[in-house]
Amino acid sequence: MHLPQTLLLGRELAGRDVERSMTTTPNEPLTIFTVGHSSLTERVFVALLETSGVSGIVDVRSVPFSRWTPQFNRDVIERTLHARGLGYAFAGDYLGGRPSDPTCYRGGVVPEGDADFLSLVDYPEVARRPWFRRGLDRLVELAAERPTAVLCSEEDPQRCHRHHLIAQALIERGIAVAHIRRDGAVEQAVPAPKQLSLLP
Question: Helices 42-52 & 74-83, crossing angle to 10 degrees?
């Protein structure tokens, strides 16, 4: 599985004719942000990013389109961000919360419609897949080049795969993750509790 051009090229995330800024120094740990657009307006969303110091977005929505929030359709939000000097890359095929492989679901079947993907997707299994690991590697590389936020639609990170899958995989690598909330608050992501085995 090859990474899409938008995820492969750091220049794509950097935006058009925008000078890159470094997220970290050799002595500073890397932090990757996450944000959910929910029903925010474009203006408020961009203000959240700028206030948090984010200058690049990696879109991890499996379906980057919505009839209810057309301002966040993939082509629209990409133009909006580029117009403000912010970068955009799409990675929903590799870091999305609705994988197309039925073996990534607890029931062995890809759900349809408005299913509860949060409870149906086998996130530990997804995290082991080579395509997910390669996507995560590229996310880390891009975040090392400039302050980056992972974008999904759900505002509450506790109800989104960006916390239960992506953030947990990053934390396991020793990378800090911070969730940007709609009121401007920034919450540090914490490791999910490990389930104890009942077997001796």
Answer: 50
